[in-house]
Amino acid sequence: MDPDPTHRPTRVPLPQEDFDRKTLVIRATPPATWRNLRWRSSASDKRLYFASASGRLTPSSGKAPCIYLAPSDRTSFFEIYGDKMHLAHEARELPVIGAADFVERVFLGVDMPTLNLVDIISGPGLEAIDLDLGTLYATNPVYPRSFAEAVLRHPSKVDGFLYESRHTKETCAVVWSFHRPALAKVQWRVDRTLGDYAANLSGDQADVFGVRVQIAS
Q: Are 36 and 110 within 8 A, CB to CB?
């Protein structure tokens, strides 16, 4: 049987010594306050950065804890809940969010200095590391994580990535402090809870960032 012509193989990075010879597309982002949505229990200096096995741009070795950042609370929300929203809408159901989420999910304001980040929004940025969108958004995050590991170990010693939210198309960042320990000590604060964005409450339903959701007790 002929192979499926629509199948595109998932990519892997070159061996590190070859990858190290690549010229990465690096953008310096100006100092800014970024947004991050997380559980209140993880809002601490010790847990500001963490190495999540599901974070597709977290280096695969687990030796570089990361923080994922968005330019707005709305994008922070959809980066976490966007797939849940989509699946519910496909099923013609209201998305369900637990009542505890509205109290225990908090938005952080994180003050970052100038960051040197690998741009994987642009075509040239993706091409420079041989990454494609199919691999970046592969079901198994082990594939993009292997590229993150290669970038982490590249001699350019960058601070992470700039990427585009697949939900809102806003520019987001993932940052590690592996090469710049001072980045682990940036100023941050809890600004508000997810519940602050619940509007038009009626029974067990509310609007959150323009999406009608059901609140589960």
A: yes
